[in-house]
């Protein structure tokens, strides 16, 4: 059968909506700091918990987090998983580790990568440190940190990680 | 049916662009205000929370989930969401109260339409089957409806302009309004056409904002010791998504909802109608059977500012507030959703 007679059973017709996205006033403060290589959380005026990245409120108390809290780039593993399945569009080759990390001085975890280690050696309570990308690549994103690598420190009791 | 009391209502200023604020930052102030005005210290003191929003408006997936961060939902609360105007969140909560599953409820709606192109967002939002492949935007569809009315001799362009002039005039007394002022019918008719037969002022503005409300049983309202308005009737109806199968010059669903809610059982002192386009206020007034003795849209209505997903709840709040203040004894609030008034809710409120 010639090509012009081939029956067409499907066509792609993608539609797009364009948005001028905004992250939020509180999150913008965090993103402006990380653009300069600094991690800045925000403290709840009611319960004192420190959120990073901040979203504008303490989810527990329902009040605005206005006080900025500078944080170090060391953290503790709260939980993790080893990803074996390739995700379309993701440049990282499996297997790799995705972890919930609690930064020192913060109370709420965020998700990031752990690397420079044997995947089988990663444990809950493990101490890790951020490995930043070269400054020229810094943007308004958590990806300014390439990944976290293990620290040569004693592990934290899993029951004491985060809240 | 159990009477349900509207105890408090808080509304953010209606603005064209809320700037950097995200959903949490939009919701938090109005929720805190509505709770405080009801004499409640936190969301933990209501039995049920329900919100109305649409993530497509701001282009932020799961913004409706993220918004819960504004509430203080620890320990966990009973919470629900409708992908509709928060007037429908009120309906869900009203049903819960009717069934005895809750005595009180917090409602909130938020909309940040400024990041996207609202007429196109609405054409793609939730209807991938019927009309979306044709890309009809919300303003063009409303224009078809206005044209049908003009051609049938059911309205004049001057009547449309009168609706707009009254909206802007009334909105001068509304601190949260986006558009207000004194404009004459002649001035409005001298404005150029936008999408004929609609001029720009015939269309509601695009707005950002949020609103919240506390409702509860009348017994609970008495125990709170706050003045309140009572929901005496509520009904909502929907018409086909196929515009060609509808008579666009009237609103059958509003007529049915009005009968169901009992609008005709008494004098209507005040009505707040969710009419995003000037000609639709005329359609709705006729469908509700409103006469010259009813004050329509004393807030200016949504032609003075239209926060998608909150404006319907705001209509209920506006009527309830006037009843609580003693300015009206009985009022009707209306909410709409969809193209050319596809879905309509009618709420009858009275003083105690």
Walk me through this protein's architecture.
The complex is a heterodimer of chains A (163) and B (352). Chain A has 163 residues and is mainly beta. Chain A has one domain (25-160). Chain A is built from 1 helix and 10 strands. Chain A has one helix at 25-35, and strands at residues 39-43, 50-51, 57-58, 63-64, 67-71, 74-83, 96-103, 110-114, 127-132, 145-150. Chain A has a 5-stranded antiparallel beta sheet with strand order 8-7-6-9-10, with no helix packed on it. The mean pLDDT of chain A is 93. With 352 residues, chain B is of the alpha/beta class. In chain B, helix 7 crosses helix 11. Chain B contains 12 helices and 12 strands. In chain B, a hairpin with a 2-residue loop joins strand 5 and strand 6 (198-199). Chain B has 2 domains: 4-117 and 206-229, Peroxisomal Thiolase, Chain A, domain 1; 118-196 and 230-350, Thiolase/Chalcone synthase (Peroxisomal Thiolase, Chain A, domain 1, 3-Layer(aba) Sandwich). The longest helix of chain B has 15 residues, at 23-37. Helix content of chain B is 34%, strand content 20%. In chain B, the strands form 2 sheets. Chain B has a 10-stranded mixed beta sheet with strand order 3-2-4-7-1-8-12-11-9-10, sandwiched between helices. Chain B has a two-stranded antiparallel sheet with strand order 5-6. The A-B interface holds A 15, 17-28, 55-64 and B 19-22, 24-25, 28, 31-32, 42-43, 56, 58-60, 66, 68-74, 114-117, 120-121, 124.
């Amino acid at each position: 059968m010639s090509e012009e007679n081939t029956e067409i059973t499907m066509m792609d017709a993608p539609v797009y909506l364009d948005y001028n996205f905004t992250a939020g006033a509180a999150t913008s403060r965090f993103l402006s700091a990380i653009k300069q290589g600094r991690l800045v959380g925000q403290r709840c005026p009611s319960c004192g918990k420190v959120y990073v990245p901040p979203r504008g409120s303490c989810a527990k108390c329902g009040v605005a987090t206005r006080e900025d809290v500078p944080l170090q780039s060391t953290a503790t593993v709260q939980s993790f998983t080893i990803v074996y399945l390739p995700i379309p569009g993701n440049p990282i080759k499996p297997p790799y580790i995705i972890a919930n990390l609690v930064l020192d001085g913060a109370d709420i975890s965020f998700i990031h990568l752990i690397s420079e280690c044997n995947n089988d050696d990663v444990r809950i309570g493990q101490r890790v440190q951020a490995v930043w990308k070269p400054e020229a690549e810094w943007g308004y994103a958590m990806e300014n940190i390439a990944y976290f690598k293990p620290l040569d420190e004693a592990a934290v009791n899993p029951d004491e990680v985060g809240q | 049916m159990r009477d349900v009391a509207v105890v408090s209502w808080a509304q953010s200023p209606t603005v064209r662009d809320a700037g950097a604020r995200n959903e949490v930052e939009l919701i938090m102030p109005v929720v805190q205000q509505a709770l405080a005005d009801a004499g409640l210290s936190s969301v933990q003191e209501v039995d049920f929370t329900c919100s109305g929003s649409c993530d497509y408006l701001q282009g932020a997936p799961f913004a409706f989930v993220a918004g819960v961060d504004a509430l203080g939902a620890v320990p966990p609360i009973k919470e629900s969401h409708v992908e509709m105007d928060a007037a429908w969140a009120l309906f869900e909560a009203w049903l819960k109260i009717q069934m005895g599953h809750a005595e009180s409820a917090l409602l909130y709606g938020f909309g940040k339409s400024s990041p996207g192109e609202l007429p196109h967002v609405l054409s793609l939002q939730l209807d991938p089957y019927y009309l979306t492949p044709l890309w009809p935007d919300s303003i063009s569809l409303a224009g078809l409806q206005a044209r049908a009315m003009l051609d049938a001799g059911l309205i004049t362009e001057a009547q449309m302009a009168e609706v707009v002039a009254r909206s802007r005039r009334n909105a001068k007394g509304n601190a949260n309004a986006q558009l207000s002022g004194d404009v004459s019918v002649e001035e409005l008719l001298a404005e150029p056409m936008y999408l004929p037969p609609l001029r720009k002022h015939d269309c509601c503005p695009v707005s950002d904002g949020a609103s919240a409300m506390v409702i509860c049983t009348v017994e609970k309202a008495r125990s709170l010791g706050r003045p309140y308005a009572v929901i005496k009737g509520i009904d909502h109806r929907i018409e086909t998504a196929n515009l060609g199968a509808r008579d666009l010059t009237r609103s059958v669903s509003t007529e049915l909802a009005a009968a169901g809610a009992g609008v005709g059982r008494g004098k209507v002192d005040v009505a707040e109608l969710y009419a995003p386009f000037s000609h639709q206020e005329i359609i709705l007034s006729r469908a509700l059977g409103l006469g010259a003795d009813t004050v329509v849209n004393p807030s200016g209505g949504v032609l003075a500012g239209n926060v998608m997903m909150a404006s319907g709840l705001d209509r209920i709040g506006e009527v309830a507030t006037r009843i609580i203040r003693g300015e009206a004894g009985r009022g009707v609030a209306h909410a709409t959703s969809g193209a050319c008034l596809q879905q309509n809710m009618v709420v009858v409120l009275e003083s105690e």
